[in-house]
Amino acid sequence: MKMKMDNRLIGLAAVLAACALPFVITDEYAIRVLNVFFIYSVVALSINLIVGFCGQLDMGRAAFMGLGAYWSAILAVRFHVPFLVAFLTAGIFAGLVGAVLGFLCRKSSFDYLTLITIGFNVVCQVVFLNWIPVTNGAMGIPKVPAPSFFGFAFDSNFRFYYLALGFLVACYILIGRITKSKLGRAFEAIRDDAIAASYSGINTQKYKILNFAIGSVFTGLAGALLVHYTQYASPFNYTLDESVYQLQMAILGGLGSLPGSLLGTLILVVAPEVSRSFYEYRLVFVGFMMVIMMIYWPNGLLGKAGVGEKLIGIVRFRKKEPEEAGR
Amino acid sequence: MESGANMFLQHLINGLSIGSIYALIAMGYNMVYGILELLNFAHGDVYAVGCFAALGLLTMGVHPALALLAGIIVGFVINLFVEKFAYRPVRYSGRVTPTITAVGIAYIMRNAILKIWGPETFAFDIGVRGSNLQIGGIIIGTLQIYILLIAVTCMVGITLYLKKTKTGQGIIAISQSIPTAALMGVPVNRTISIVYGIGGALGVIGGILFCVYYDSIFIGIGFALGTIKAWMASIIGGVGSLKGAVMGAIMLGLMESMVSGYVSTLYKDAIVWLLLIAFVLIKPQGLFPAQVAEKI
After folding, report:
1. CB distance A83 to A149 below 8 Å
2. Percent of chain A with pLDDT over 70
3. Is residue B92 within 8 angstroms of chain A, CB to CB?
């Protein structure tokens, strides 16, 4: 119980610190990077929900970002729908598509699921690129309006910062609640052993579909928010490479750890911006990191027995905990 | 009517030649896939390095045959190293972990190519530019015949290697059960290294044929045109069986050529993927699954 309070206090402190940050860092560019970081964090969290908690190796998340983004952009630009409606329906739309994909994959094992998600990503990208009447093809959709609520427009980096931060906090709390609920425990049971889960009365197919749908809602929302921020929907932003890079954010931080997803995203979003030469070598860096991490800390920075726990172990002597069964 | 039939035959031949290139790439991929159940995301990028090395030597004026041989050796050696440092330590730690190290290796290889050669498309000319044979209105490039011949030779060679040599039998034993093979005295680590090496070498051969066929080389031959196609072929044909990889690859080639010929070139990739997804949902074992009893 004490631990729980601790975590909440840390979370609250982090949010307050984040609120105060724009007054300290006044550099527009830094704020912009942070805004992107907040949005990608939600994507990483949704990936964590699917890959980390339910064990379904989904490599097509960028497709859902794209679906959300295009839905919202098209509604806002062509039909002048208010931001809030476009944004929220984008989440619902992505969630429905996720449910359909989950329904198709409900019986698929590891390899096939991964292959199907990759295929889905390729299909979506081809459609974005070639369905010119709707998506405007390679030109993309420019001039997507900035987000605004009831006449208040989040049109500067500074204003958007608080919207993105609020979005991240809301999604973080929601996903945190989901993972601690009956639903989250069912996901973890499926991840650990699908057959055992089904014998414990968990309808694995239903929960897999739910998992895909819920994860996709968050990914779609993040994609929609990002497109209103950058104000431009381009078909080249939702490629398979992008999906794999997003997957690394969740893996680096630690699958199954929500703060880990934030840390992983922070590293992979901020590091390429910090130095141009890093950007050139970012694939080598990411590649070595993935190999070394997987060999020494397969659960990521903040996952079980990861670097985080080792550091905490060094800082304070813990009482010996009983070994967890079955892990 | 006559020209319709000719058209069909033309697409058939194009599909066969592209399919046999995929077959070479898929064979190496599927051997690894069958033995270790590893989704080898690095396969394409490793052989791309081999192909680029061959390109480098070609532009330096080395004789094409030597350059190609060097490329094949590069692919072989890189895969040996990759196996030793990235796959062996995580061989027994689940499915997700090795998949991720493989993606890591793919990134490293891709960055190396980008750093040394850059993202441009290069001409790839090894001086084999034969004439076209015209048989009853159908054009068959001599190149296509060479490609088919090389592909068939490699397939026959690998099959004989697996059936007739001791190492080949070791590979088959390991693909059925690693612990049992180890108990029977098969050197597990060495054999698996060899499998990776052969996979890399076959990949380079396929990759080079690919470049020759399209007259050009660019970074995308690794991942999008290599790994993913090899994987699709393996899934269609059946995981872990050589015959499956070859048949799956040829079907994939035919499918692509027919779709772009009769349906739509723009949506070719999307349609082929949708067909594949439908296929996976209907027949997840593939057409020719490896004949190994599976624990249920």
Report:
1. yes
2. 90
3. no
